[in-house]
């Protein structure tokens, strides 16, 4: 069969694809979410399980998503329909694309709110607000900030406008430069932060917290199950898998590029950034006698302490938050791309209009997250179930997407490529050269290992059996 063409254009090169996909993967998930989840789940067990999931489940599924995207060359919804047709499967597989679009809206709704916090912190750090502040002072500045719904709405709106602006203009504009220069800059600043953390005298304690599986910390009822489910969810979230973001980007991939090496380098970079963020943050937490389990506000309560104390901290801190905004921006773009591409294909909408419509929907959903930190902080919509007892709207949306929808989407992708797609198709598409066992290993992992592992984790973690 002849190659399909994408109506949305191509990446200019393979490197450009890797940059864009890395831009999607590296974001708040690495620097905001990873540390607070690790803190919440007692460190080591969560971190090690997360790394294990990235390697065993994440990389093979990422390869599968890129491959499907490149074969279908459309938005994930149409890609799944077309590829399923090619392979003689039901057109119902497009439901997988729809599920991804729903997950994308839900994630973007809270992602934009948190990215809004980051944007606000650019100005707060720049104004010197944290200079000479104590840890307690920094903490109360944060609490006061999130208690004001109007302010959060303002920043949420500002970030959503930025996202819509770039998506509307076509994803490739600007993305290349943003990722090419800003990502290395983010890496350098993280390394400098790790250097600062090394001088706190608590570096060893931070390393131990992150890499030593401390089952003592997970004694509470169900805590280990939560850590395992959370570790798997974080692997999907952080790699942008299971909702079609990578599939949508794969649709613009030039033919005949190696998918395996691209997936491996994206995953390595993503994991490196998360681990560096952890290594920078935990020593500062211990040095200031703070609690690792401080929830979603963790980095906002911890990093400004360091910026307030180090020489030139305000400049340095401003730069850090600016780079984090860019990292979040390159991720949020990929969260709406599947929906926007679909509206353009199906409804013939202009990209600008499609991006605007999607932005409004995600913005409205984001109001639930904004209120979760203030006027609805005591509202627990599923409080009748013990597992969801203290969960706010934000907690529930986060739980549903990371721990349910993304792993489910990922596993369905794995089942499709490894059980339903002809072996010959995937073998040709992946064209793994160099390692002779490469293809059989990929097939083994997608055919048996990931579906079984995710199923077990669902049974144990979600159903609490
Ligand atoms: N991977 C992104 C991050 O870590 C979030 C994301 C999830 C983006 C799913 C796209 C799809 O911040």
* Strand-pairing-aware structural class: mainly alpha
Mean pLDDT: 93
Distinct ligands: phenylalanine
The CA-CA distance between the termini, in Å, is 47 Å
Q: So how many helices?
A: 18
Radius of gyration, taken over Cα atoms and rounded to an integer in Å: 21 Å
Helix content: over 70%
User: Would you report the number of β strands?
Assistant: 0
Report on the biggest sheet: none
> Which residues sit in consecutive blocks of at least 5 with pLDDT less than 50?
none
How would you sum up the global shape? globular
Order of helices and strands: HHHHHHHHHHHHHHHHHH
Strand content: under 5%
What would your notes on this structure say?
It is globular, with a radius of gyration of 21 Å. It has 18 helices and no strands. It is mainly alpha-helical and 465 residues long. Helices cover 75% and strands 0% of the residues. The longest helix has 35 residues. The structure holds phenylalanine (PHE). Phenylalanine binds next to helix 1, helix 2, helix 10 and helix 14.
SSE blueprint:
Elements: H1 14-25, H2 28-40, H3 44-72, H4 76-86, H5 94-126, H6 135-146, H7 149-168, H8 172-198, H9 203-211, H10 223-238, H11 245-250, H12 259-287, H13 298-309, H14 313-347, H15 351-372, H16 393-420, H17 423-430, H18 438-462
The structure holds phenylalanine.
What features would you highlight for this structure?
465 residues; mainly alpha; 18 helices; binds phenylalanine
């Amino acid at each position: 069969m002849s190659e399909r063409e994408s109506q949305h254009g191509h990446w200019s090169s393979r490197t450009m694809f890797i940059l864009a996909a890395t831009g999607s993967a590296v974001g708040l998930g690495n620097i905001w979410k990873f540390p607070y989840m690790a803190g919440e789940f007692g460190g080591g067990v969560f971190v090690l399980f997360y790394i294990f999931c990235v390697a065993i489940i994440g990389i093979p599924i990422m390869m599968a998503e890129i491959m499907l995207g490149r074969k279908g060359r459309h938005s994930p919804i149409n890609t799944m329909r077309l590829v399923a047709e090619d392979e003689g499967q039901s057109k119902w597989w497009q439901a997988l694309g729809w599920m991804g679009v729903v997950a994308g809206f839900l994630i973007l709704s809270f992602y934009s709110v948190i990215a809004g916090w980051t944007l606000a912190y650019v100005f707060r750090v720049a104004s010197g607000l944290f200079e000479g502040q104590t840890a307690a002072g920094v903490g109360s500045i944060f609490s006061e900030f999130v208690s004001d719904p109007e302010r959060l709405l303002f920043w949420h709106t500002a970030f959503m406008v930025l996202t819509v602006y770039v998506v509307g203009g076509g994803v490739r504009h600007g993305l290349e430069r943003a990722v090419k220069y800003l990502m290395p800059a983010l890496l350098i600043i993280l390394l400098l932060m790790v250097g600062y953390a090394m001088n706190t005298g608590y570096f060893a304690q931070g390393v131990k917290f992150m890499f030593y599986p401390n089952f003592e910390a997970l004694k509470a009822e169900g805590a280990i199950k939560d850590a395992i489910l959370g570790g798997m969810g974080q692997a999907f979230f952080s790699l942008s898998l299971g909702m079609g973001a990578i599939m949508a980007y794969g649709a613009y991939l030039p033919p005949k590029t190696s998918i395996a090496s691209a997936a491996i380098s994206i995953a390595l970079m993503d994991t490196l950034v998360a681990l560096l963020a952890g290594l920078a943050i935990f020593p500062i937490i211990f040095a200031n006698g703070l609690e690792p389990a401080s929830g979603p506000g963790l980095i906002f309560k911890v990093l400004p302490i360091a910026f307030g104390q180090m020489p030139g901290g305000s400049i340095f801190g401003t730069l850090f938050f600016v780079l984090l905004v860019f990292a979040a921006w390159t991720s949020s773009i990929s969260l709406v791309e599947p929906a926007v591409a679909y509206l353009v294909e199906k409804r013939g909408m202009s990209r600008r209009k499609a991006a605007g419509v999607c932005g409004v929907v995600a913005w409205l959903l984001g109001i639930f997250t904004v209120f979760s930190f203030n006027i609805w902080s005591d509202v627990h919509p599923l409080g009748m179930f013990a597992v969801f007892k203290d969960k706010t709207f934000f907690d529930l949306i986060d739980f549903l997407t990371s721990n349910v929808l993304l792993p489910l989407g990922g596993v369905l992708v794995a089942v499709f490529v490894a059980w339903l797609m002809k072996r010959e198709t995937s073998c040709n598409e992946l064209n793994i050269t160099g390692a002779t066992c490469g293809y059989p290993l990929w097939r083994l992992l997608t055919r048996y290992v990931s579906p079984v592992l995710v199923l077990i984790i669902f049974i144990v973690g979600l159903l609490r059996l």
